[in-house]
Amino acid sequence: MVFNSFAYALFLPILLAVYYVLNKRWQNVLLLLASYFFYGWWDWRFLSLLWISTVVDYAVGLLLDNPNASADNPQRGRLEDPEHAPPPAEPRPESSFSRLSRAVAHRRKLILTISIIANLAMLCTFKYFNFFIDSASELLTAFGFTVHMTTLKIVLPVGISFFTFQSMSYTIDVYRGKIRAVRNPLLYAVFVAYFPQLVNGPIERADHMIRQYANPRRVDQSWIYSGCLLILIGFFKKIAIADSVAPIVNDCFNGASIANWSTLTKGAWLFAIQIYCDFSGYTDIARGTSRLLGIELMENFQQPYLSRNITEFWRRWHISLSTWLRDYLYIPLGGNRYGKFKTYRNNMITMLLGGLWHGANFTYIAWGGLHGVYLAGHKAMIGDKKLVDLPWKPWHLIKVLVTLHLVLVAWIFFRPTPISTSWDYLTGIVTLRAGGKMFQPGALAFNDVVTVAFFAALVLMIDIPQYIRKDHLAMLKWHWLPRGLVIALMLFLLLVMGENNDIPFIYFQF
Amino acid sequence: MTSRSSIFSFDTLKLPRSVPIATLFALGLLAAGELGVRAMVATGHLEQDKSLRLTLTSRLDELKADKPPVWFLGNSTLDWGVDVDSLSEQLGVKVVKMAHGSATVDATAAMLDFYIKQSGVKPKQVVVTVTKDDFNPNGFRADKSKTYLEIAQDNELPSADWLMLRAARSNIRDKVTDTVDSLRPGQKAKANAAAIVKPFNGKVLADNDEFVRNLVTKFEVRSSWIGDLKAVCDRHQLPAPILVLMPVTDRYVEYHDRIVKSPTYEQVHQQILAAAKENGVQVIDFWTTSFSDYSLFRDAYHLSPKGKDWLTPQIGQRVKGSMIQPGMR
What we know:
The complex is a heterodimer of chains A (510) and B (329).
Chain A: H1 6-19, H2 24-43, H3 47-64, H4 93-97, H5 102-142, H6 160-176, H7 185-193, H8 195-198, H9 206-214, H10 221-254, H11 261-292, H12 310-316, H13 319-330, H14 339-358, H15 362-382, H16 396-411, H17 419-430, H18 446-469, H19 480-497
Helix pairs in contact in A: 2-7, 3-5, 3-6, 3-7, 5-6, 7-9, 10-11, 10-18, 10-19, 11-16, 11-17, 11-18, 13-14, 14-15, 15-16
Chain B: H1 10-13, H2 21-42, H3 52-66, E1 70-74, H4 76-81, H5 84-91, E2 95-99, H6 105-119, E3 125-130, H7 140-154, H8 164-167, H9 169-182, H10 187-195, H11 225-235, E4 242-245, E5 248-249, H12 250-259, H13 265-279, E6 282-285, E7 290-291, H14 305-323
Parallel strand pairs in B: 1-2, 1-3, 3-4, 4-6, 5-7
Helix pairs in contact in B: 5-14, 6-7, 6-11
């Protein structure tokens, strides 16, 4: 089931009506059943993957649980203990594990490895098997070998990358002693399957979510109002902006090898707008829906296109994935602790795998590689300077534009097309191609500029107030008149620009 | 009263202390906008968009009112290729043209059935214009034709937009665009110049040409659709339909043979002729003429106004003898 469907418009009110009159335990049961229904609506057979992931990682969590770890932190109890104090910000694995015998430590490592392999095997089978087979076959053919390798005729299960990563983070956190294992299977099952964030994130952490499932929910009018506002903003971004630009973008990318540079530039700009509004729109709807259920989801986007450098961009774009990659890949690889070269290497490995996470295609690897280069380049420029919350200066606008265009170039590779198409697209822009000839700067079309400016203005209308107040609900603090005008404008454009067909969210394919 | 729920209480249902004035204001503005647009449509200051529903409704009204004996059906090649007024004059009977954008032959047959069932009017003669891509069950046209097939299968008009703001949205957008353009000097002249149809430039079509590349996706020839068309006519006790194979440019033919390779353009032609013969369908054939007079075309396969003026009398002349029966008027 997708948020922008008639089925969901029926599903949510019915769910809320029942949910609001149940007690906490039955609310969790209902959430679990509703989540399975939500996922099974698309294809019930793939529910088995969710169940496998849930059972395996729940059991692994129990096997890895380290009761001695809590001795270091007497405040820390189990996540499901009602109202218990939050855990410390950083785990203390050294002191925790010092109490364990070598044999126990070895056994725990083995169990974690098995768990990670099981999760990655599921992901690789459904997402990467055919890609690796095809690539190997092409490589062998290039060297003159004729091979006939079998590929699988399987459909990519929606959201598998999201819930697999979420499950993995839980077992790794338990292994590291950052959290205690969850004993209540219902809470863990809800954690894996919670429908608002199941298929498109945010990729949540157990210590944030399970505590909320374990405690009674409080939904007052401010939660309902803010939830509805987030849902409205999400639908506005998705339907009025992302879906409206989608056909224009498709036309531009379909004509990658022949279109004028003006058209291609318009397409690149609009694709950047489309992918942001599509994905962040989903997150907004997920967060708004979750608020109506009394559960707070993390922010996944913080106005990324207003970033002043590429490092900041990655602190603002798909935050749940970038922090996941940081915590479970970049830092274990050594992070920035072993000199410049290894920092660049770790950055590159992290971004390449981050690119591959998005899809089994060389274009995504190229996208990740480009960002790896950007990050390494930026790291080389700034050295050890801290870049947190720098005050704004007028010339920072230039930095924003430079960062935005670097990101824009990378987006050209962020499509499941042959990499040659992306290359044609990029060269078309760089060489100012028009009418089959190169270096034709005069071909910039006024209408293309107006189209981009219109959609960019809609995005900025939402993003700038949020950026200034550092709050996705900044609009709630406005005077009623501008707030009412913006809500009216969003509703109007939703009605006028929305098409009747349900265009799926881009990130579903990941 | 206590509730078992951690969320629900009667306090939850109480209105907030402050009325959600911004939301009410926004909804009020929308309601005012809707009323305003309805008033503008009612007074003729704004039109509803030319939606499929509106088009079908007006056609059904026309069929019921005029009861035209000759029906021309097809897609954009018909719309741009045949002048229905001069054809009516030439044939001496009322001719109606019902084009459905990108319709394949099976969709055209389905829509013929729909019009007869919905209007209760039967034509004396049906003429269907086709090009080779109208027989491809896998291309862009087949995809677009799903809508027509669904309408015909359900035998119902597409649902109406319940908001006039939506029903007239294209016209609202055009009004805004016109207003913006009027602020830019010289823009109106440019728009007028752009509205003049330029003839096809005769360039060789690139492999991924945006106008034709999607038409030949997984190209096949479903010539049995001619039988479907004939079956609709039989079901309603109409004479066999006439098939007009529309002219295209040599660039279009060359593109087909280069990209599709098999069946070649000529092989497609032969398959269609064979299927027409098998079903007793008369063919008026402009197919084999690969025109290099590009002034007759606006692109590789759509006729220009000059081409329309050239083709219409030829079609009229070719169908006149075989089609007109006594008492048709």
